[in-house]
């Protein structure tokens, strides 16, 4: 979920495009569904309330696993929580003896509880340790800004944050850390703001793009998304539905390209002719081509939804493509 508010008050978690995700999944009695990004449990709760079905929730964040306790008590025998990465869903489900499933929901990015906890270091809205790790293990964002070479920092900010002043920011970071180690979100945000002017067009905080880039890098979020999409292809039963909500163009582009490849819709010479397809048989049928965005009422109720886009597809009966295969 994108950084879209400036208030220091924590926000109540509201699942984005909830009704649209439920419709895309076509939730039914007796179905088995995977919520690959459990987070605060919004999608899981809605799925379990919509039908007499089962849900497997996956999350790499230990705090999210703890938050599942009330739902586990409310839906005994219908909910299973697995700690792990959604990119490993095929292996995780196999290890628990769970066969093909009827739906997979993915809400890509950082969750509201993660953003709103200063101790997690995801947000520049309040000061906290410069951490940003979803799994609470591995190198932190502080390790990146203090230990990486200037050129590597600039590359991360440009590639993952689309920060056009990435070299200037990297230079400022290296200069600042020569005096004292950069340990907090406020320190880093102030460094970025000192060299990146606030946009008059959109008013976005100058630190937004750099914080996004560091978070994506620390958690390998784009790699995780690629693995998660391929994993969903492997675990979905024929006729099963995939619903993916993303919040940034980098993520949405990956989802769109994956589904176009896997549906055989890439490469059509015109809308009047069938797609020119070679290679493995299509494993998905697109459920809409342009994606679904939040309605005006939802945006008024939940400003954090403003950049969200839902893409959905139905699994065919074709075998999953070999790992790394492209159309």
From TrEMBL:
User: Residues annotated as region Disordered?
Assistant: 263-327
Q: What is its EC number?
A: 2.1.1.199
Q: Where in the cell is it found?
A: Cytoplasm
Catalyzed reactions per annotation: cytidine(1402) in 16S rRNA + S-adenosyl-L-methionine = N(4)-methylcytidine(1402) in 16S rRNA + S-adenosyl-L-homocysteine + H(+)
Example GO BP: rRNA base methylation
**Annotated keywords:** Cytoplasm, Methyltransferase, rRNA processing, S-adenosyl-L-methionine, Transferase
What's a single GO MF annotation on this record?
A: rRNA (cytosine-N4-)-methyltransferase activity
GO CC, alphabetical = cytoplasm
Keyword Manganese part of the UniProt annotation: no
CDD domains named among the record's database cross-references: AdoMet_MTases
Which residues of the sequence carry a binding annotation for S-adenosyl-L-methionine?
A: 41-43, 59, 86, 107, 114
| Family according to the record | Belongs to the methyltransferase superfamily. RsmH family.
Family annotation (HAMAP family): 16SrRNA_methyltr_H
Q: What does this protein do?
A: Specifically methylates the N4 position of cytidine in position 1402 (C1402) of 16S rRNA.
Q: Which PANTHER family match?
A: 12S RRNA N4-METHYLCYTIDINE METHYLTRANSFERASE, S-ADENOSYL-METHYLTRANSFERASE MRAW
Q: Which NCBIfam families match?
A: 16S rRNA (cytosine(1402)-N(4))-methyltransferase RsmH
Q: What is this protein called?
A: Ribosomal RNA small subunit methyltransferase H
Species whose genome carries this gene: Nitrospirillum viridazoti CBAmc
